[in-house]
Amino acid sequence: MDVLHSGIIQTFFLILISATFTDNILLTRFLGMCSCLGVSKKVDTSLGLGLAVIFVTTCTAAINFLVYEFLLIPLGIAYLKLIVFIIVIAAFVQFVEMVIERVSIKLYFSLGIFLPLITVNCAILGTSLFMLNKPYSLLQAFAFGLGSGLGWFLAITIIGGIREKVNEASVPRGLEGPGITLIIIGIMALAFVGFSGMIKI
Amino acid sequence: MLYAIFISVGFLAACGGFLAAVLVVAEKKILNYGPCNLDINAGERELTVDGGSPLLSALAENSIFIPSACGGRGSCAYCKLKVLEGAGFVGPVEEPHLTTEELETGVRLSCQVKIRNDLKIEIPKELFAVKHFRAKLIEKEMLTYDIAGLRIELIEPQTIDFVAGQYIQLESEEYKGREAVMRAYSISSVPSDNRHIELMVRKVPEGICTTWVFDYLQEGKALYFSGPYGEFHLSETDAPIIFIAGGSGMAPIWSIIQKMVEEGIQRNSVYFFGALTQKDLFYADELNKIADSSEWFKFVPALSREPDDSDWQGERGLITDVVKRYFPDTSAHEGYLCGSPGMINACISVLIEGGMPEEKIYYDKFA
Ligand SMILES: Cc1cc2nc3c(=O)[nH]c(=O)nc-3n(C[C@H](O)[C@H](O)[C@H](O)COP(=O)(O)OP(=O)(O)OC[C@H]3O[C@@H](n4cnc5c(N)ncnc54)[C@H](O)[C@@H]3O)c2cc1C
Ligand code: FES
């Protein structure tokens, strides 16, 4: 079946689910690892960063799609996509930071410290770049962004939960911190690889 | 080919410029909190400032200068103030600098508190007297191989009111990739000469401000500082005094001793000056002259690394041992100490051991 050309709603959900599970950006592509290792110590910080990533990934995927289609391609400078995408993401994050600061101080203080981390989160740049590998429409790019964000959120929250439990147990000295976390991520990645091939796009 | 380069460079520049412009406009529009009221010390002073800026700079714009050594980056913790109402959440930059007790009483780093609404704050009275000065270096003289004496003439405002023992914050300028910083230096001149101040600055290897003072600040150049700050000054009692300070730590003590001479305050005092060798001594002639011509003052320089066979007639050994030898019993004295934290801590334990109550020991740590 040609997924990209079946019904709009169906495509949307298929792309969403495939980006979340079968092509999980954190567990199958290992992107966004530095902020994941740094922040996944507790579930609530993981939740905060995860939510921020969902929001920014989704929006920047859509914005970058438009920039690519309507500016970079017509001007014949598609090879600049990497640097342009980074600038767009950085500016967008700054903008979101301002809006959050104004709208909800509480959210700003619980989430605000994560926002600058996001600018350098490669999962977000990765999403914008990977979406160009498929002939997506705007709506499909949006679904892909949302799915990637959800996938990253899901992965970091689960890792956070496991790490909270693991920290209560006694971990061998040399494995504490990033060591045991990488092992956990590896085992989880194995589990997620089990989804691969479920949906083909 | 040329065309392609032109397009790509032009596009990147336009893209960056456009986004920067959007962000600047957005910041003006979105983060505009309008005018906010600052209530200082329960109605003692009221200010109206533009919301959105940090408390520290908003106060500075209104000529209230809170000490600050890091320029508002949240690393020096000099800028602590009590914010009673309206400060909002404690951010991750502030938290490590505040004790549980301070958190409970509303102490905050004023450089990190952003004004978003009306605030009620408390500012220690002395800080109202702090001003920002434009001045001119009129003399730079090497007192020893690593300590320079600076004489500074005030230009705007023309005079300064301070108590002997207080310090100012000197503002260094940018040079060779080092940023502009503020550093504390005690005033070594007397309050009665209120159109000048003098400083004693010891060179710290690789130090940002001291390198500027030694290599870039020339006689005749303009400089800026704020002050006076600090609680270090002579008490109002008649108790005999033990002064202890070496190196540039002499600055506030020299100011106090000159003031005592000038005003005829004849409290029994001994000044212990700790140094390594004779090369580190300065102002010894002046101090000896005061000691010779008065009953109440004694000057005791002590050298810890002077070669055994030199012509040195005075005390030898660590300053702590010398103090202990002169005053096994310190219970009736007051102690005034200045210098490095290590030296001060060691001297405090010696004085307490001799029976001096802790609240009678006054000090400024040059940290
Ligand atoms: C209340 C107060 C009064 C002071 N009065 C005087 C004074 O009268 N005369 C004077 O010379 N200094 C005085 N100081 C110290 C002065 O404020 C600076 O800390 C010092 O001059 C170093 O500044 P810098 O920018 O050159 O060095 P920085 O660039 O800040 O420091 C460079 C390195 O040197 C270390 N360092 C910092 N200070 C010292 C020091 N004093 N000795 C050894 N290593 C140091 C730092 O840890 C750092 O690693 C006073 C400090 C305080 C708090
Ligand atoms: S000014 Fe240095 S911490 Fe606030």
Question: What is the topology?
Answer:
The complex is a heterodimer of chains A (about 200) and B (about 375).
Chain A: H1 8-22, H2 33-39, H3 43-75, H4 81-103, H5 105-111, H6 115-119, H7 122-130, H8 138-168, H9 178-193
Chain B: H1 2-30, E1 35-40, E2 45-50, H2 55-61, E3 80-85, H3 100-105, E4 107-109, E5 119-122, E6 131-142, E7 147-156, E8 167-171, E9 182-186, E10 196-202, H4 208-216, E11 222-229, E12 241-245, H5 250-263, E13 269-275, H6 284-292, E14 297-303, E15 315-316, H7 319-326, E16 334-339, H8 341-353, E17 361-365
Parallel strand pairs in B: 1-5, 12-13, 12-16, 13-14, 14-15, 16-17
Antiparallel strand pairs in B: 1-2, 3-4, 3-5, 6-7, 6-11, 7-10, 8-9, 8-11
Helix pairs in contact in B: 7-8
Bound molecules: flavin-adenine dinucleotide and FE2/S2 (inorganic) cluster (FES).
